[in-house]
Amino acid sequence: MAEKIKPDDILTDLDGISKSFGTNQVLKDFNLYIRKNEFVTLLGPSGCGKSTTLRIIAGFERPDTGRVIFEGRDITSLPPEKREINTVFQKYSLFTHINVAENIAFGLKIKKKSRSYIEEKIKYALKLVNLEGYEERMPETLSGGQQQRIAIARAIVNEPRMLLLDEPLGALDLKLRQSMQLELMRLKNELGITFVYVTHDQEEALTMSDIIVVMNHGVIQQIGTPEDIYNEPENAFVANFIGDANLISTRMIDRTHVDISGTAFKCTDEGFAPKQMVDVVVRPEDIEITTPEKGIVTGYVTELIFKGVHYQMRISAGGLDWTAASTLGAEVGSQVGIYIDPFNIRIMRHYQ
């Protein structure tokens, strides 16, 4: 999000947000803008401040310092029900004593909408989440995925400008979770509203997001597209948290070579001085397994796991344990060479 944007493109701006619970500071001078019609994912380990950020946007928590700006208006003190924002939680919180239609209509009835308007919105929402004909069903008769869709339908009938989703797929099994990921992407495109999604699942974030915000200890580590976050991590935390990575703390030899366990590896990243302490990341799929004589370093395969579309290998070479991913396997105990294209060696500032 480094490019220039127009102020009219911004839907929500979190300006200098800090939040503590007792002596635990959860967010520290947190600054983030969210553009209209984006799918933004807050990604990070448990306790990093993702859900607190979401609750502040929704109005369920008040920041200690800072402002929540919505379309240029300060809404920091505005109660949740007066914000054009709806939230879907991991626990769907459906009312078990009323049917699906009544669950969906709950917010509309509070707003005193007409009966015809409510009936039209219920049909529209159920069609949108592919549950037409479920009006009379009771929540306990539905599967987890169906309950999730009803919770989303209940949120979208209120026509929010922004939909917040706090780990909504965490309770679903893998195949259903993957199916719901595609459904949420479709809904975002069809509805034309902004989604802000909280997860600690890296694959989920990479699959669904326009923009990923990687967080740790209440601080933003990196903001970017899924491709940027994966291919160009800004520090070792991001590289290690997003996908598998070989991470090495070392020093530059000169401006175009880095020392990896006593061997000079050519690299293309610029801006680092000779002898400067750096972190190096190499993705497993960027390691080419060769014959020993063609490798930059040689080593021995210590582990081989078949993953379906590729083999995952552990290779002991140059005093390091490398993780490699390849469509060609090599037997445990065999000697292999490791070659890495200079373009695939990512040099980063050393992460403290």
What does this structure look like?
There is one protein chain. With 352 residues, the chain is of the alpha+beta class. It folds into 2 domains: 7-236, Rossmann fold (3-Layer(aba) Sandwich); 247-349, Beta Barrel (OB fold (Dihydrolipoamide Acetyltransferase, E2P)), CATH 2.40.50.140. Helices cover 24% and strands 35% of the residues. The protein is built from 8 helices and 20 strands. The chain has helices spanning 50-58, 100-110, 115-128, 144-156, 174-191, 202-208, 226-231, 236-241, and strands spanning 10-21, 24-35, 39-43, 65-70, 73-74, 85-89, 162-166, 194-199, 211-216, 219-224, 246-254, 257-260, 263-266, 277-282, 288-290, 297-306, 311-317, 320-326, 335-339, 346-349. The strands form 4 sheets. The chain has a 6-stranded mixed beta sheet with strand order 6-7-8-3-9-10, with helices on both faces. Strands 13-12-11-14-20 form a 5-stranded antiparallel beta sheet. Strand 11 and strand 12 (257-260) form a beta hairpin. Helix 2 (100-110) runs parallel beside helix 4 (144-156) and helix 3 (115-128) crosses helix 4 (144-156). It is elongated, with a radius of gyration of 24 Å. The chain starts with 9 loop residues before the first strand and ends with a strand. The mean pLDDT is 90.
User: What is the H/E order?
Assistant: EEEHEEEHHHEHEHEEHHEEEEEEEEEE
CATH superfamily of the largest domain: P-loop containing nucleotide triphosphate hydrolases
What's the gyration radius in Å?
Answer: 24 Å
Distance between the termini: 24 Å
Tell the overall outline: elongated
- Integer count of domains: 2
Q: Which architecture of the largest domain does the CATH hierarchy give at level 2?
A: 3-Layer(aba) Sandwich
Q: Structural class, please?
A: alpha+beta
Poorly predicted regions? none
The biggest beta sheet is recorded as: 6 strands, mixed
Question: Strands of the biggest beta sheet: in what spatial order?
Answer: 6-7-8-3-9-10
- Fraction of residues in β-strands: 35-45%
- CATH class (first level) name of the largest domain: Alpha Beta
Helix count? 8
Number of strands: 20
Give the helix level as a range of percent: 10-25%
Mean pLDDT: 90
User: What fold name stands as the CATH topology of the largest domain?
Assistant: Rossmann fold
